[in-house]
Design a protein that fits this description.
The complex is a heterodimer of chains A (about 140) and B (about 80).
Chain A (H helix, E strand, L loop, with lengths): L3 E3 L19 E5 L3 E7 L7 E2 L2 E2 L1 H23 L7 E11 L3 E2 L3 E12 L2 E10 L2 E12 L1
Antiparallel strand pairs in A: 1-2, 2-3, 3-8, 4-5, 5-7, 6-10, 8-9, 9-10
Chain B lengths: L2 H16 L12 H5 L5 H13 L5 H5 L4 H15 L1
Helix pairs in contact in B: 1-3
Classes of the chains: A alpha+beta (about 140), B mainly alpha (about 80).
Chain lengths: ~140, ~80
């Protein structure tokens, strides 16, 4: 089992997004079974509307958590740029509560299954112990 | 699990997962066309096969599966290997 953390300064090495579209601050846990990230919602976030972060931003946060996690795991197996991941599908999406300015979001991703280059994951964003958004995604690695 | 049980189990989970009538799940029909599978759907197929039959098929396995009859043969072979 691989256990790894990625600090904010290194996140760009593993995901294709760049500021102001980066929606994760750091990876707090990476294993072969899943990933965890943290994201602090600051006032300069483009996706804030009346200090409320849109639901789609949290879905993007889950996707970027996947991208960084898979990117890191991929970097262990091959040199060069990490493989890009694309969202193939989002299903079973539930929005429990909106996130707000200055809140710290913890995101957990569980890898449910893998077939070839397609990963089925369960992603959940938490505010403390409280669920904000959960969904399943199919992530396709290019 | 015998052939009849494999067929009944397959009909049940495929009709639920892919919303297709069990009447279309017959041995000579093309599996991919009947279930209207695209490449992303195969991961869903792998999940339900693993849940119901206890093995995880590979891409190599699917190369031999054209019809439902081929699928039943694959399941029989994999279950025999597990026994």
């Amino acid at each position: 089992m691989i256990i790894m953390q990625i600090e904010k300064s290194q996140i760009k090495n593993y995901i294709p997004q760049r500021e102001p579209f980066i929606m994760i601050d750091e990876m707090t846990n990476i294993t072969e079974k899943g990933f965890e990230s943290q994201f602090n919602i600051l006032s300069d976030n483009l996706f804030l509307d009346n200090n409320i972060l849109s639901e789609s931003s949290l879905v993007e946060n889950i996707a970027q958590t996947c991208a960084a996690g898979f990117g890191y795991l991929n970097s262990l197996q091959s040199e060069g740029e990490p493989r890009l991941g694309f969202i193939g599908a989002v299903t079973k999406l539930t929005n429990f509560k909106y996130a707000e300015l200055n809140q710290l979001i913890n995101t957990k991703v569980e890898i449910l299954n893998t077939f070839e280059n397609i990963h089925l994951i369960q992603g959940t964003c938490f505010l403390g112990e409280e669920k904000l958004v959960e969904c399943q995604m199919k992530i396709v690695l290019a | 699990m015998n052939r009849d049980q494999i067929i009944e189990t397959t009909k049940r989970f495929l009709s639920e997962e892919f919303e297709v009538s069990t009447e279309k799940i017959i041995p000579e029909n093309n599996l991919q066309q009947t279930l209207e599978l695209d490449s992303l759907d195969y991961v869903d197929l792998v999940v339900v096969i693993e849940e119901n039959f206890g093995f995880k098929p590979t891409a190599e396995d699917f190369k031999t599966v054209i019809t439902f009859e081929d699928f039943y043969q694959l399941v029989e072979q994999k279950l025999a290997e597990l026994a």
